[in-house]
């Protein structure tokens, strides 16, 4: 565990974009953050593409962890960017699924960000309390009468699907088929890709303690 003060600054060489990321923290991530400026000419366009997706926000610690390998960071940026902006699944369902993944995988940063986005998208706060508190629905478990708790029937279906994909991976036929009552085949693929992608995100964040969030309490629903 490394304890030191660090200052992170990114200035893109594109004159149209001049973004600065500056922070001071006692960091304990399991590897140091990558350089905040491109290490060579080949990495310059990658840094610029990631900065462009984040704009007007600065780069985040996740970016600076991935940028140890700019090619990996570039692929990640493209994939997650498509998941975020090029899918047709309603934001309420997408952010609910991501928030549930964060709870199951104990990804504090993922919960704090995406639970707030779920509320902004229209998920009821009582529903988010259910997302946070309800018991895991494993493969083979009977589908009960959980409807309510601030969630619609569609949201419950997504929650169950997310649970089984995240813990155990295999999904009951009935749980998968339930999605087709309100999602097209394309949207089922998009939702599945979203759940898979954000399981990847949460596992990366937690394993390396990116952003130094491990062990910190997740925000309460009333704080979102």
UniProtKB/TrEMBL annotation:
Alphabetical list of Pfam families matching this protein: CMD (PF02627)
One of the entry's Gene Ontology molecular-function terms is: peroxiredoxin activity
Per UniProt, residues of the Carboxymuconolactone decarboxylase-like domain are 70-130
The record's annotation in PANTHER family points to: 4-CARBOXYMUCONOLACTONE DECARBOXYLASE FAMILY PROTEIN (AFU_ORTHOLOGUE AFUA_6G11590)
What is the official name of this protein in its record?
A: Carboxymuconolactone decarboxylase-like domain-containing protein
> Which organism does this record belong to?
Periconia digitata
